[in-house]
Amino acid sequence: MDGTLLDTDPAEADAFFEMWRFVTGEPCPSDALAVFTDELDAISRAWDEGLIPASELGGPAIRKAAQKAGLPAHPSQVPALEEIYLKVTVSHGRLFSEVPACLERLSGALPLAILTNGPSTLQRRKVQLAGLDRWFDVIHISGDSGVAKPEAGAFERLADAVGCAPSRMGFIGDSPGSDILGASRAKMRAVWINRYEERYPARLPAPWAVATDLVAAIDALTRFAT
To answer: Nearest-CA neighbor of 49 among 176, 192, 190?
Structure first.
């Protein structure tokens, strides 16, 4: 969902501005923001390439990136900073520009489903704020089931909820290590959205198709279906 349907990059910047102001009472320097976002990106890439466990994502990643950016926080302030980050990224995330028209076109014509990792309350709040629940028939969150991407079981449970064999489903995602690997394990047609011309990890199964946005991804799957 994040990075595929929701653009969270501007929200991450807004969150760090709020975190910095909370600690210092001053505006955030631009160089500190750059270090923070670069570190989060590096952590995400390391996860995609299987170099770090999932336990280093979320709160630990936020703490590590903030520390590297020089945020002068006392340990007692860390829980509040994590809460600020989560609240701002949830409320400030926005759908990518092409997403509403794409989903409006597909809704009702095909069963649509979301598979996302994370705490149920947090992810459902994102879905509601973005208005995604009006288009999707199934919303499957790892926090509800205890089975997360890239485990094949997460994708197989999604297929069961949709009522379709995994081999007859297409899956679109932006994360090689979470989305493409997991969908491939479940024998789904995995389409990688590569919005930012990133390098695909050579050690992972290749995606069935590569697209620059949701329009191109849907076009690729439409060709498969016909």
So the answer is: 176
Q: Cα(63)–Cα(81) distance, rounded to whole angstroms? A: 9
Task: Give 151-207 pLDDT, tens digit per residue.
Answer: 999 999 999 999 999 999 999 999 998 899 999 999 999 999 999 899 998 889 999
Are both 136 and 216 inside the same structural domain? yes
Instruction: Tell whether 192 and 87 lie within a shared domain.
Output: no
Confidence bin at 140 (pLDDT 50/70/90): very high
Number of domains in the chain: 2
In 31-122 the beta strands, taken as DSSP E runs, fall at 94-95, 113-116
For residues 137 and 168, what is the distance between their CA atoms, to the nearest angstrom? Answer: 17
Question: What does the CA dihedral 218, 7, 42, 31 come to, rounded to 10 degrees?
Answer: 150
* φ/ψ of residue 2, rounded to 5: -70, 125
- Inside any domain, residue 1: no
